[in-house]
């Protein structure tokens, strides 16, 4: 891979955990993705519901679907989710599991039939239903670990790439930690560590949090033929990340290796207080991030029945306007030992950085269309959504226009439009039980990175009585991607940035209990 310098510096800054071009752009896209989780019924059907109604999930998927309710409804949905990650890195594979239990949905729909003149009950505006619903639309629960021996390069190579094009406290701290030294010709820096020597590299990531919305929605029914609806949603995002990278059992350069880079270096002078050769080191770089965001969006939708056995649905969801508080904290520790057997460090360097930052974000709008076909004993429904991730916007609250432009340009150059596709079906087994299945595909928002994100689902529904019902679904998703724990200028250093292959298996068990009244 060949990287131009501008892109390389953006990624290096991101891995250093500072307020860099690309850091907030990545978060905005991360917060833009959603699966529109709702009740177990529609989750079992792959969430293919743009052309369907009669379920509280319509409050966020297509509010026109609320017009199908012929009675009031109250429902509550429980979800157990488990993520299993397999990571391959430098010839080693590791698997991690992380689960959580949560209430994914709680809502009520109030059925309000309209007054009919002359006893007509099938013409004109038949109802105006109102719904209030809370649901989670994305879950950030995740844990991954990978490690391996790297004899080709060091994370210090990425530090030096940064130092060569920047100045300030961070550069001074990296220099003062004996990680890098000035070249003899004054043209930049070189690693004091043996970047080509074997060292154990370890990366650990823990994420938690979710995106949720509280929707106030309405849906109306005109002559059982045309349904319209709208909703106003208050969106909340809670996200926490702890990402740590360790480089262990490494060696610093010998005296001769230092002299080869800088013949006048104090590090190679035995008479200098800064004499520093042939040390062993352990390096730890940790980033802690906490994000709290809140905002709003609105949706407008319609469903049309060209025939009694066909539905066509269209939904528009506005951008979500968010105010984001990002509190990031980085810790970089280096322990130096005189020999490999020492337990006590002969030198220790610690640098801490805190980056509280507040900004506004606008996620992309969404346009969805769907079609549903009904049979005597069931139905099939299919949806597609269009999202242009490159249209997301970042805005600072302190008129830092250059920083703002950098992030918006990063969004445009890194992300693209994507299509999400869903299909699902339902079969009535008996007057009491029904079976469901579905498939959900999320499009790749990245221009230059391949990833897949698919989910399959099965479910069973039961009408316990005229008023009570229960729905159960099981979902399994597969998500694969590649990531770099750090990125270096490969042409300059003559080696490739290390790459981890991540395969995530996500399984959910979902239960909805409801009552009609």
TrEMBL record:
Domain of life: Bacteria
Protein name as annotated: Outer membrane protein transport protein (OMPP1/FadL/TodX)
Organism in which the protein naturally occurs: Candidatus Sphingobacterium stercoripullorum
Lineage, uppermost ranks: Bacteria, Pseudomonadati, Bacteroidota, Sphingobacteriia, Sphingobacteriales
């Amino acid at each position: 891979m060949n990287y131009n310098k501008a892109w390389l510096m953006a990624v290096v800054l991101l891995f250093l955990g500072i307020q860099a071009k690309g850091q907030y752009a990545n978060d905005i896209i991360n917060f833009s993705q959603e699966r529109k989780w709702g009740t177990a019924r529609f989750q079992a059907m792959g969430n293919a519901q743009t052309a369907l109604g009669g379920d509280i999930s319509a409050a966020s998927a297509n509010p026109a679907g609320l017009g199908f309710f012929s009675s009031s409804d109250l429902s509550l949905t429980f979800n157990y989710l488990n993520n299993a990650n397999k990571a391959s890195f430098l010839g080693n594979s590791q698997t991690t599991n992380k689960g959580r239990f949560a209430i994914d949905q709680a809502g009520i729909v109030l059925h309000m039939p309209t007054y009919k003149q002359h006893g007509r009950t099938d013409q004109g505006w038949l109802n105006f239903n109102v719904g209030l619903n809370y649901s989670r639309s994305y879950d950030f629960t995740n844990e991954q670990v990978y490690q391996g021996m790297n004899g080709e390069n060091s994370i210090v190579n990425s530090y030096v790439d940064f130092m060569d094009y920047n100045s300030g406290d961070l550069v001074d701290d990296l220099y003062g930690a004996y990680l890098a030294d000035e070249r003899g010709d004054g043209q930049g820096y070189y690693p004091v560590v043996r970047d080509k020597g074997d060292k154990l590299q370890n990366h650990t990531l823990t994420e938690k949090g979710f995106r949720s919305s509280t929707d106030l929605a309405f849906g109306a029914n005109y002559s059982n033929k045309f349904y319209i609806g709208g909703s106003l949603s208050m969106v909340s995002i809670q996200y926490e990340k702890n990402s740590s990278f360790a480089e262990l059992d490494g060696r610093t350069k010998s005296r001769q290796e230092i002299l080869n880079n800088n013949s006048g270096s104090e590090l190679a002078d035995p008479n200098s207080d800064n004499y520093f050769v042939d040390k062993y080191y352990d390096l730890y770089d940790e980033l802690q991030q906490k994000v709290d965001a809140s905002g709003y969006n609105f949706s407008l939708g319609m469903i049309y029945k060209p025939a009694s056995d066909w539905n066509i649905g269209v939904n528009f969801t506005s951008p979500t306007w968010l105010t984001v508080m990002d509190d990031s904290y980085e810790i970089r520790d280096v322990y130096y030992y005189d020999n490999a057997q020492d337990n006590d460090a002969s030198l220790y360097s610690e640098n801490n950085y805190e980056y509280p930052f507040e900004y506004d974000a606008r996620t992309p709008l969404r346009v969805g269309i769907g079609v549903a076909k009904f049979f005597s004993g069931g139905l099939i429904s299919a949806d597609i959504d269009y999202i242009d991730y490159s249209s997301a916007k970042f805005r600072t609250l302190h008129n830092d226009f250059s920083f703002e432009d950098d992030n918006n340009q990063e969004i445009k150059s890194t992300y693209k439009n994507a299509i999400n596709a869903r299909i699902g079906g339902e079969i009535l087994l008996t007057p009491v039980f029904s079976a469901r299945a579905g498939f959900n595909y999320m499009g790749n928002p990245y221009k230059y990175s391949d990833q897949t994100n698919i989910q399959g689902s099965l479910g069973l529904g039961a009408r316990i009585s005229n008023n009570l019902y229960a729905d159960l679904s099981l979902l399994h998703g597969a998500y694969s991607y590649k990531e770099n724990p750090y990125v270096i200028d490969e042409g300059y250093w003559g080696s490739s940035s290390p790459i981890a292959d991540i395969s995530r298996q996500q399984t959910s068990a979902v239960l909805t209990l409801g009552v009609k009244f």
